Each structure stands twice: as C-alpha cells, then as structure tokens.
Amino acid sequence: MLNSSKGIALLLALGITTLVLACLSLLEDVTPTLMTVMGTLTFAVSYLLIYIVLHFLIFEEISNIYRVLEKIQKKNPGLIETKRRGRALLPLSNLQGTIDAFATAKNREIEILQQNETFRREFIGDISHELKTPIFAAQGYIHTLLDGAVDDLSVRDKFLKRAAKSLGNLEKLVQDLITLNQMESGMVKFHMTEFDLKETVHEVLEQLEDKANRRNVRMQFQAQANGNFRTFADRDKIFRVVQNLVSNAIKYNKEEGKVTVQLKAGKNRLRLKVRDEGKGIPPEDLKRIFERFYRVDKSRSKEQGGTGLGLAIVKHILEGHKSKISVSSAVGEGSVFSFDLPLQTKAEGSKPKN
After folding, report:
1. What whole-number distance in Å separates Cα of residue 69 and Cα of residue 106?
2. pTM of whole model > 0.70?
3. What percent of the chain has pLDDT over 70?
4. For residues 332 and 279, is the Cβ–Cβ distance under 8 A?
5. 68 - beta bridge partners?
6. In what helix (H) or strand (E) does residue 7 lie, and over which residues does it extend?
7. Which CATH number fits domain 123-184: 2.60.40.10, 1.10.760.10, 1.10.287.130, 1.20.1440.130?
8. What is the reported pLDDT for 348?
9. To which H or E segment does residue 270 belong?
C-alpha cells in the first residue's frame, strides 16, 4: 500500500477522516447522518488533494529525475552503482542516494581524466627528451662531417661510429616503446612452453659476463645442483625479464661489487631473486620505478645508457604470466628484485599442453 501515491493518499485520508469524526463525536447535536456526510466529504476531499499533491508535484517529478538517471546509466553502464529501492516509501532519500552515487562516480571519472592528463603531459615530455638525445647526437656528428671533417679519415670513422651508436639507441628506444604499447593493449601473445629456468638463467649470465667484467662486478648463481627448476611460461619473455634484472644489477652496482642470482624451488612455485650491492633505492622512488622512463638517479642513468622502459616491460611480462615483480631496497645496501613462476612437476610435465 505504501508503494504508490494512491496508497499513501488513502492512508492519510483515512487518518484525517478519523480525526474529524472523532472531533465531531464530541459535539452533542451531531446526528449519525451528519457524521456520515462529513466523513464522506472529508475523506473524498482529503484523498483527492493529497493524491494530486503527491502524484503530480512529488512522485511524477521524482520519476522524471529517475528516468533521466536511467538514460545516463544506459549510456554509461556501471556509472550509477546503487539501485532504486521502494521509491514511493522514501522517494527523496532514495533519490538522494542515487544522485550521491552518480556524483561520486563522476568525481572518480574526473580524477581519472586528470590523472591521465598528467600522465600524458609527463609522457610527452619524457618521450620528447628521450628521442631528442640520440637524434641531436647523430645530427651533430653528421653535420660536423658535412662541414669538412669527412676528409680526415680518423675523425670520419670515429664520428660515423658515434652517429651509428646514437641511431642504434634510437632504434632500441622505438622498439621498446612498440613492445610496451603492444603489451599494454593486449596485442602481444604469450607462447607458453615447458623449460628449465635454471638453464635460462645460466644463458643470461653467460651473455652478460663481459659487461660484468668491464665493471669489475662478480656474478654468483645460487641454485640446488639436482633440483627441479622446470616451469611453464614464455621462455623468450622470461629470458628478457632475467636479462633486464641482471643487467640493471650490474649497471647500478658499486665498483667491484657482486650480483647474486638465487633460484629456489618451493612446493608449487619457483622464486628467482636478483640482488646487487649498489646505492639502493630511496623509499619515495620504490613505487615509481616501474613507470615508463622513471629513473632514480637520472644523471647516472643517462651516462650508463638504457631506455628507461626495461622495468615497465618486465612488469607487464610478469603480469601476463599472472605473477608480479617485487622489490626491496635500502639506501646504501643495494636492492633485491624477485618474482615467482609455477613449478612444473614431472606428473604435470607428462600432460599435453593446450
């Protein structure tokens, strides 16, 4: 009865009629006929007036507002999270809740747009700076040669090599950007196979041995000799993850420092840790090191090269494997990066892979 304007009008009219009849019954000269007539008139007039006020001035207007909100919700599914409940019983309260939910969703949408705008400005600034460095360097060498230095064979060869190196860095930056964009848009496919993670780590360490020797950095690999380190993942992409982490550990290590790569097998998971003895990462930078182009020590990073996209790519590769990269660090004590992969047991290894 309370779910419509008619029901509410009926209850209020009955209440008013009862009150009027109660007052009339106190008079001595009131006849039953008069009581009946007054009761009927009071009920009819009260009902009509209350119904008109409730229906046309309150409920109809509230219904119009709801219809507008429903149209907005159809165009933006999930924008208004609360649902209408018994609108005739507490119409204004329910309407207020719906509008509050709508306002909250809109505020959240505005905040996301503002964050995206800030990210867009920062990204354009970062990419402009990263592209400018190798382009200007290559231009400088080439213009110097065009201005006459090309006749000096020793200068020509040196400048051509430097220009080629700058263009190589530019190509690497563009390739990393393409890779990261493809991963974020879900265009990159993962080719999952069974392989030995221990062998993959050995390959990475052998590949980076010369780089470590140039910086007098020792590399140590800790893994159980006869353990099972087989996993089911995209081998090429995991190779890139390990390569990036070990390369960074060498690059940002102290002179004559040590890089420790530790591989452990748990009950169902493999855990790989890469530890360095570098300067460490300040707490305020830990949350941002996986952002595009973010560098903790920008001056040293520029000198040592790199695109600033490596850790962002690592993060997306591991997310594609339903894993995540973890980092712990203390200033002056180095950093530890780690991630998990599923352990492939012999029983699982005999099953066909889809």
Report:
1. 13
2. no
3. 84
4. yes
5. none
6. helix 5-24
7. 1.10.287.130
8. 55
9. strand 269-275
